[in-house]
Write a structure and sequence with these properties.
Shape: elongated
Strand content: 5-15%
Radius of gyration: 42 Å
Strand order of the largest sheet: 3-4-2-5-6-1-7
Largest sheet: 7 strands, parallel
Structural class: alpha/beta
């Protein structure tokens, strides 16, 4: 809480005004500097009892409303210094227009006094975020502004809806009372209207005598200056400016993002041509009024301004116009500089400045010489224009530097800045900072003269100002009074510069003085005679609306209101939320009609149509009104009513946002958990790793043999499947492994049938087949004891696997069974022969012979069967794989029981396919690098081979190089263009070059003038996708599910990667289809947001966690000697609990001492337990994730791994049960609601696309041509019209635009292509499959295909800039003969909402219509995936064939493989808007010269890819 500084004493008149203002609503009228704000502070403190209570429990708040950002800052600082309350300010550049209700409620909870611009308070009042009854005091600074439609007046109109006893106290503060020029006769009426507006009366001091010492009363004078002289150079300059203005009149400049505006001219925005005309007019004005010296500075400033503007322009035509203007300004500066050449700098100022400027110099000089000893030179110069302030600043600064008489003059400037929330917050902050620095310089003496606009007239405090100069005449009484009020010093001067030929200002000035006198006569000492407005007056004068507002009461009893004045901005805001791109900005269409009433009066009526992306399709009519302004407001208000009725505006009368949509559909996320996010560990990411309880096979849980119970013997049959070796040593091993004698599992539970599987020994591959439930028997306690001893010997003596901290599991929990011999044991001396493993397949390739030399002193004689010893080495691998298969079968049975997918519990007759590992699979597992291209370490720094980077010199779309048969280096000089440098040898080469024309040149020339025909769908054999015909039958096998439960990081011979890719594509497809069917009115943006949350890794993690998948996944590489846990042994159960609760690193296990007796019995004595507890309490250090977690029956799994597993399981069930079965699995995971009918989603009747009256063929004369080209005839051409209607195409009121179809078509094509790749390219690694999928399914490939088949020619769009970009890309592809190759993919940058427009190579609309066409055919054909595949395979077969044979690399990988590039990616940066990531990239160009490139995207991977593409494009250009 801000603490007040020491109070100063109130002046007597302040106490008097304060005592009256606390009694009733008041407007305090005091001269500038008389301390109005201090009175406001006293009233705030007096009424602060209402604001002390928290807002959430009924506390109220004080609102301090101001007009400008500068005033908000100043008043906030004053309040913080002089009150004990929490205060905060709010202005437009803080983006408050987009704050949510919760955000505002938090601000109201945290702060007791809120300073804000009046428009902001009006907005939050109208949106129902606060009500007037929750405000105890409303203070309006500069309240004379509250006229007409000013936000202050509109706020006061809202008092009509607030009961009198709940209305806040109102306090107005003003020094002028008047907002513009009025006649003296209207003075009393005007101030009475102000009193009516603020429900109070004006109070003033009883006498000005007590105020004179504090308020302003400067000596006023007028200084006249001569009009500008007519100089030859001036006339020459004017002539050039006039010529440029005439040229601009005939140049039509397109506005960036502009679509063809069908609104009537009266409603169209001001053109850029007019804005550039203003630049020329402004320069003309400055040259004329300030002289050519100041005009030269103005020309330079405008040049800089135009260069700055040019940086953000996308339209090339506009850039040309700006370049022309810059040339004009440069030529004018040259003319001026030539005229002033030969003069000293000071002479230039004095000779070539206007008399007005010179008179200003003289005012400064005279005042400085004549000032009193008690005065210091502190001056304010008020100008009308911001630009004038800047020009004058540069003139005065040069005067200070070049003229000794003016060394005292230290000039600065201050101008206002925009509070437009759409402008750059950074720019606004900079301007604010610079203004503060100017004031700081003035206070500490570094500046003594500020040139300013009215930003200082109102609000900015400049104490001890001794001189105020009006460089431009005050426009009205308010400007006159407020600028004069800045002369705060007791003996200050106020000087107005007036043209000598101006005869109008004198009477106006006299009127100013008369009004000042009249105000004093009316108000000073007369407060008691003024009365508050009556309710009748308020109803008649304030509460009367020409257009009745529309009010809504929401479920929280909050009233929201939209008025005629706010409706237009709300409609525009709504349209902007529908979706904009780099090339199109959506706006409403306004039409004007003139009507004649029965009385003969002219009326105006406006119709309004929102863009076709909106579900509001009908044209909205406003009521007939007496003016165009009111008619437009009426139409906008009626539109807002209708938008609210159909749910496009919330009850707070704001456009429905994605966040609100997600709140409304939270039933789609039943498993979602609101958990804490951290920048380095977001839920659902690879970085978020958590401990999960391991899941063990139920048939091996609590299965330790007990005496006199039924026991089951499960035989482990091991047979070598490698060829019989020729050398004797290996032949011995082969014969031992071929012996049928071996081991078995003895347990109390039956086992399901299991797949046979392979394991790998050093000598070769062996097959393991488990004969489950082979024998049922009972044993005595003694027999079981002996078998237990044998079991322990195997894992302690033969294979020392039982760790010293492990004990016999007396609790008989997980992993409890015995390994026993399946026959009698024959004992003889032997030694170990080989070892086994799962993933080290290459061991089988070791063929070299080896010798062993045993040192007797180091050997221990141990008598044990060589057969059992050799086979004992295979036990850890066998038991591990059996556990995996059992868990997979356990999950399979659970899903079957819940969803009826697949076979029920397998019986003895069930036979699963064997798990065999092909050589190709093993090689992939051993050699496949990581797919995560975001990890720089996985790619080499440099590679010797370098791809050939060929192409144009500068613009990748400038394909001129394809037009010629020679290279740039072969081309001769133009001998007529370079006549000064040409030599005879050049002419000789020129002649030989020109005379060597080839047939290729003739062919190229002929091709360039030949009309280009677009391709039609080729007639090709379309291969079937088996998945589309798969139906629910036997369901998945154990091995497939085991594969889906095996993470890549485990380095097993198989993993989930390929299945995950398949499942991911199906998940996207079905989710898109489900959302499209379920929410038929939602725009694509909302569908995309919901889909993103549904298929996001975070939601998938919650789905997997709910089914306990994290404990089933294999995430660690299996190593028998380190992470295998021997059956029937574990870390003591009590110790497990102690370590987990204490969150101590499992590394402590190796520091625990457990005796042999305790280990074998499973019982720890009290001393051991106490010692363990002491060690745990004193243990320090160690990573909580040490790789030993499995000894505590837990494992660490990343959220993303769980999400990947979910997708892999979807892929498994898609492969085995078909589309319908996979959809049911989504319901089992609760990714899709269980209650939705899957059959209806997949095969139900699509919704008719026709939503308005009319014939689609009216817009598509080409429909039959297109149908013939793609080989499909539409049953409902509404789908075809929708697929090609861009959001800017306003004439289409029959269907929606293409976005929803594009949303669906994108997922359909992704799924079909992925399924085809999955079924047909098993020779590719997972990484290659992903790269192939990425190369085929992306906006660039689809855009190229759209152009190849001429789909762009059918696009219906009203956006010239978009069409220009399409044309540029089409020309590029035509010159390439429509080739689509990896060079194209890794250089071109597609358009996304994150890409910078200047870098976009491929307009997104081209890929969109390709995808939308797929969605249209799918729905029109009755949701037939086979029909879509039949058409689109034919369209894409060439790329599928080429890319599958030579898979294109991703851009990041391509960049690393570019020799000499030396790429270095820097950490990603989140930009201000939070949903865009920027990645800087450094590359080497031109012999060790470094260059920084930036990529943008929605995530780090996308941004990195964009940066890599930019780098490749740059390298491509440099290497030409």
């Amino acid at each position: 809480m801000v603490q007040p500084i020491e109070e100063f004493s109130a002046r007597p008149y302040q106490i008097d005004l304060y005592e009256r203002a606390v009694q009733y609503n008041s407007i305090i009228y005091l001269p500038t500097g008389a301390g109005k704000t201090y009175i406001a502070v006293m009233i705030i403190k007096k009424l602060s009892g209402d604001v002390i209570k928290p807002y959430s429990v009924g506390g109220k708040r004080t609102i301090f409303a101001v007009n400008t950002v500068a005033l908000a800052d100043q008043q906030l600082r004053y309040l913080q210094r002089h009150t004990h309350l929490n205060c905060s300010s709010y202005t437009g550049e803080m983006q408050v227009d987009y704050w949510s209700r919760d955000k505002w409620l938090q601000e109201l909870e945290d702060n007791q006094v809120l300073v804000m611009t009046s428009q902001i308070f009006l907005d939050i009042l109208n949106h129902g975020y606060i009500s007037l009854s929750q405000v105890n005091l409303m203070i309006f600074d500069e309240c004379h502004r509250a006229v007409n439609d000013h936000p202050m007046r509109l706020i006061m109109q809202r008092f009509k809806d607030c009961p009198k006893d709940q209305q806040p106290r109102v306090l107005g503060l003003t020094a002028t009372l008047l907002n513009g020029n009025i006649k003296v006769a209207k003075l009393d009426e005007t101030i009475t209207d102000l009193e009516t507006t603020f429900h109070g009366k004006i109070i003033a001091v009883e006498s000005l005598i007590g105020v004179r010492g504090y308020a302003t009363n400067p000596i006023e004078s007028i200084v006249r200056f001569s009009p500008p002289l007519r100089l030859t150079v001036l006339e020459s300059t004017m002539a050039r400016l006039i010529q440029a203005r005439e040229i601009l009149k005939v140049v039509e400049i397109k506005i960036d993002h502009e679509m063809i505006n069908k609104s009537d001219n009266v409603f169209k925005p001001k053109s850029k041509s007019n804005k550039f005309q203003n630049v020329l007019s402004d320069l003309e004005e400055h040259v004329k009024l300030m002289g050519i010296y100041g005009g030269s500075k103005a020309a330079l400033l405008h040049t800089i301004q135009l260069e700055y503007i040019k940086k953000s322009i996308n339209n090339q035509e506009t850039v040309f116009v700006i370049d022309y203007l810059i040339t004009v300004l440069t030529s004018i500066r040259k003319i001026v500089e030539d005229e002033m050449e030969g003069y000293e700098p000071n002479e230039q100022i004095m000779k070539f400045s206007s008399d007005q400027v010179l008179k200003l110099f003289k005012v400064f000089l005279d005042f400085n010489r004549e000032k009193l000893d008690s005065q210091r030179f502190c001056c304010l110069v008020f100008v009308q224009r911001r630009f004038t302030a800047k020009v004058l600043y540069h003139v005065l600064r040069n005067l200070h530097n070049t003229n000794e008489n003016y060394k005292f003059l230290l000039a600065e400037f201050m101008v206002g800045f925009s509070a437009n929330p759409y402008d750059s917050a950074r720019e606004s902050l900079c301007q604010r900072k610079w203004n503060k620095e100017v004031l700081h310089k003035l206070k500490n003496g570094q500046a003594n003269c500020i040139i300013a606009t009215d930003v200082i007239e109102e609000g900015v405090d400049v104490p001890d100002c001794t001189l105020v100069v009006r460089y431009n005449l005050p426009m009205d009484i308010r400007s006159y009074i407020q600028s004069k009020g800045r002369a705060r010093h007791a003996t200050s001067k106020y000087i107005i510069l007036v043209p000598s030929n101006d005869g109008q200002f004198a009477p106006k000035y006299a009127n100013f003085k008369l009004i000042e006198q009249k105000l004093e006569q009316f108000l000073i000492g007369k407060s008691q005679f003024r009365t508050e407005p009556t309710p009748e007056t308020l109803d008649q004068e304030l509460y009367t609306n020409e257009i009745e507002p529309y009010a809504v009461t929401n479920t929280n009893n909050e009233i929201s209101v939209v008025t005629g004045t706010s409706a237009i901005s709300l409609v525009n805001r709504y349209c902007s939320t529908l979706g904009n791109s780099h090339f199109v900005s959506l706006t409403p269409t306004w039409k004007l009609s003139k009507l004649c009433s029965d009385t003969g009066d002219l009326k105006f009526q406006v119709s309004l149509q929102v863009p076709i992306l909106s579900p509001l399709k009908q044209i909205i009519l406003g009521d007939p009104m007496p003016s165009i302004k009111l008619a437009k407001r009426s139409a906008a208000l009626n539109c807002c009513k209708e938008l609210h009725r159909i749910g496009e505006l919330t009850d707070n009368l704001l456009p429905v946002t994605v966040d609100l949509i997600l709140e409304d559909v939270d039933y789609l996320f039943p498993l979602w958990i609101d958990e804490e996010k951290t920048p380095l560990s977001q839920p659902g990411t690879e970085a978020r790793k958590r401990l999960h309880e391991l899941v063990y096979p139920e048939c091996l849980f609590s299965a330790f043999p007990m005496p006199d119970q039924d026991l089951y013997l499960h035989i482990l049959n091991i047979k070598p499947i490698y060829s019989v070796p020729q050398d004797n040593r290996r032949l011995v091993f082969y014969n031992i492994l071929s012996d049928c004698t071996g081991y078995a599992i003895l347990s109390t539970k039956r086992m399901p049938q299991l797949s046979a599987f392979s394991i790998f020994l050093n000598v070769g591959e062996v097959n393991v087949n488990v004969e489950v439930n082979h024998t049922k028997l009972q044993l005595t306690a003694d027999e079981i004891g002996k078998l237990r001893c044998f079991h322990t010997m195997i894992f302690t003596e033969v294979m020392p696997i039982i760790k010293p901290f492990m004990v016999f599991d007396k609790d008989n929990l997980d992993n409890s069974f015995l390994i026993v011999p399946d026959q009698h044991i024959w004992i003889f001396t032997s030694k170990r022969g080989s070892s086994a493993g799962l993933s080290k397949r290459k061991r089988a390739d070791l063929s070299e012979d080896f010798e062993e030399h045993l040192v007797p002193e180091l050997c221990v004689r141990f008598e044990f069967s060589s057969l059992y010893w050799l086979k004992a080495t295979t036990l850890p691998s066998i038991i591990h794989r059996i556990s995996q298969l059992l868990i997979a079968d356990q999950l399979r049975v659970t899903i079957e029981a819940d969803v009826k997918l697949g076979l029920a519990k397998s019986d003895a007759r069930q036979k699963w396919k064997d798990f065999r590992v092909s050589e190709n699979t093993v090689n992939i597992a051993d050699n496949e690098p990581s797919l995560d291209t975001s990890s720089d370490d996985l790619l080499p720094e440099t590679v010797q081979s370098r791809p050939e980077l060929t192409g144009p010199e500068f613009d990748v779309l400038d394909s001129e190089s394809k037009l010629y048969s020679w290279t740039k280096s072969q081309e001769p000089q133009d001998i007529e263009r370079n006549i000064d440098e040409i030599q005879l040898i050049d002419i000789d080469y020129y002649e030989r070059f020109m005379s060597s024309s080839s047939q290729e040149d003739s062919d190229i020339l002929r091709n360039n003038i030949k009309a280009r025909n677009h391709m039609s769908k080729p007639d090709v054999q379309v291969p079937k996708i088996k998945l589309l015909y798969q139906t629910t039958q036997n369901g998945p096998d154990q091995v497939s599910i085991m594969e889906a439960l095996t993470a890549k990081m485990s380095h097993d011979v198989m993993n989930l990667e390929i299945l995950e890719t398949l499942g991911d594509s199906f998940l996207k497809f079905f989710t898109s289809l489900f959302l499209t069917d379920t929410f038929p009115t939602f725009p694509e943006g909302h569908l995309t947001s919901i889909k993103g949350k549904i298929i996001g890794n975070r939601n998938l993690y919650y789905a997997g966690f709910n089914k306990k998948l994290p404990g089933m996944i294999k995430v660690e590489e299996f190593t028998p000697t380190s992470n295998f846990i021997a059956p029937a042994y574990s870390v003591h159960r009590k110790l497990q609990g102690i370590l987990l609760r204490a969150e101590v690193s499992p590394n402590i296990l190796y520091n625990l001492r457990i005796s042999k007796e305790e280990q074998l019995s499973g019982y720890l004595n009290s001393n051991t337990i106490e010692e363990i507890q002491d060690k745990v309490c004193g243990w320090e250090g160690g990573d909580a994730q040490s790789g030993l977690e499995h000894f505590l029956c837990v494992q660490t799994v990343s959220d993303k791994t769980v999400a990947d597993c979910v997708e892999a399981l979807i892929g498994v069930y898609l492969q085995s049960t078909g589309i319908e079965g996979a959809a049911k699995l989504l319901q089992w995971f609760q990714i899709i609601p269980c209650e939705i009918p899957v059959e209806s989603i997949l095969g139900g009747e699509p919704k008719n696309p026709l939503i308005g009256d009319g014939n689609p063929n009216m817009h598509m004369a080409w429909a039959s041509t297109l149908e013939e080209r793609i080989g499909y005839k539409f049953q409902n051409r509404g789908f075809l019209l929708q697929a090609f209607s861009h959001s800017s195409y306003s004439p289409n009121v029959i269907t929606a635009s293409y976005e929803r179809l594009e949303f669906l078509g994108d997922a359909i094509l992704d799924f079909l292509i992925t399924a085809y790749i999955f079924e047909n390219f098993d020779n590719l690694s997972p990484g290659q499959l992903t790269d192939l999928r990425s190369a085929l399914v992306n906006n660039i490939t689809f855009a190229c295909l759209a152009v190849r088949y001429g789909l762009h020619t059918y696009l219906l769009a009203y956006s010239p800039l978009l069409i220009d970009m399409v044309d540029k890309f089409v020309a590029f592809q035509e010159q390439r003969e429509h080739a689509i190759d990896d060079e194209l993919l890794y250089v071109l940058l597609e358009e996304t909402r994150h890409s910078m427009a200047e870098f976009v190579s491929v307009p997104k609309v081209l890929g969109d219509i390709f995808e939308a066409l797929a969605g249209a055919i799918y729905l029109d054909s009755g949701k037939s995936l086979t029909k879509v595949w039949e058409i689109f395979y034919a369209l894409m077969h060439r790329e599928i064939d080429i890319f599958s044979k030579n898979v294109p690399k991703q851009p990041v990988r391509m960049l690393y493989e570019t020799q000499g590039a030396h790429p270095k990616f820097f950490p990603a940066i989140a930009l201000d808007n939070k949903d865009t990531i920027m990645v800087p990239l450094e590359i080497t160009i031109c012999s060790n010269k470094k260059k920084i490139i930036h990529g943008f995207g929605s995530n780090t991977k996308e941004a990195k890819c964009a940066a890599a593409k930019q780098a490749l494009k740059e390298l491509r250009r440099r290497n030409m």
